[in-house]
Amino acid sequence: MISIVIPTLNAEAELPGTLESLSMTAFSSEIIIADGGSTDATPAIAADAGAKFTATLGGRGAQMASGAMYATGDWLLFLHADTRPQPGWNHVVGEYMKNPSNRFRAAYFQLILNDTSPAARRVEGLAAWRCRVLGLPYGDQGLLISSEFYDFLGGMPPIPLMEDVDIVRRIGKKRLDQLPAAAVTSAARYRRDGYWLRPAKNLLCLGLYFAGVPPRMLAGLYE
């Protein structure tokens, strides 16, 4: 069984499509919406979908940590509310979970942005390079990990930013796999902030985090 944990905050526009993309699975699954205090229809959408619901303040890391606490699956899939695995993902994930050698490994999706511009392809290429060379997939690529390995690592850090970087660094590059499947993620922030400025801001936040700046201080800069 797999538990799919989705952190949300006023996600009514994106969540229905993501839930629809998860509706067809070849294995037993549960969906846990880990909300950060939504004031829109997110809770109602979760209820209509039959998902478990938990509300936690403190940022995305705290939300995902809380969602994982309610999970009953042998595997966890952390997925952003605006990230939609593409058709066939369930077969790929199912095969990965069935392989005993993946018990203490983790996996992520290939990143695709829902934008046809060349700038979006450039960002996707940068993400592929970052994963291949640095072993740093971001949260918008999802994270598939066994509950046993997740507990062994100490779980998701309850921090407002860089929670994805924190846990993949503990997993380690040699224990990370890219799944032969893609997930389409919203390009709204890139269109809003610019296809040059947004990656530069992400890189700045990453550098400051590695330099020891607390994630809570970085959260304001990121937003």
Structural commentary:
With 223 residues, the chain is an alpha/beta fold. It has a single domain (2-222), classed as Spore Coat Polysaccharide Biosynthesis Protein SpsA, Chain A (Alpha-Beta Complex). The protein contains ten helices and eight strands. The chain has an eight-stranded mixed beta sheet, sandwiched between helices. It is globular. The termini are far apart. 40% of the residues are buried.
Mean pLDDT: 94
Please list the strands of the largest sheet in the order they lie side by side.
Answer: 3-2-1-4-7-6-8-5
Shape: globular
CATH superfamily: Spore Coat Polysaccharide Biosynthesis Protein SpsA, Chain A
What gap, in angstroms, lies between the N and C termini? 35 Å
Instruction: Name the structural class.
Output: alpha/beta
Count all strands and give the number: 8
Q: How many structurally independent domains?
A: 1
**CATH topology, which one?**
Spore Coat Polysaccharide Biosynthesis Protein SpsA, Chain A
CATH architecture group name:
Alpha-Beta Complex
CATH class: Alpha Beta
The profile of the biggest β sheet is:
8 strands, mixed
In brief, what are we looking at here?
The chain is an alpha/beta fold and 223 residues long.
Fold blueprint:
Blueprint: E1 2-8, H1 15-21, E2 29-35, H2 42-48, E3 52-55, H3 60-69, E4 75-78, E5 83-85, H4 89-98, E6 106-113, H5 118-134, E7 143-146, H6 147-153, H7 163-171, E8 176-185, H8 188-193, H9 197-210, H10 215-222
Parallel strand pairs: 1-2, 1-4, 2-3, 6-8
Antiparallel strand pairs: 4-7, 5-8, 6-7
Helix pairs in contact: 9-10
What key phrases describe this protein's structure?
8-stranded mixed sheet, Spore Coat Polysaccharide Biosynthesis Protein SpsA, Chain A, 223 residues, alpha/beta
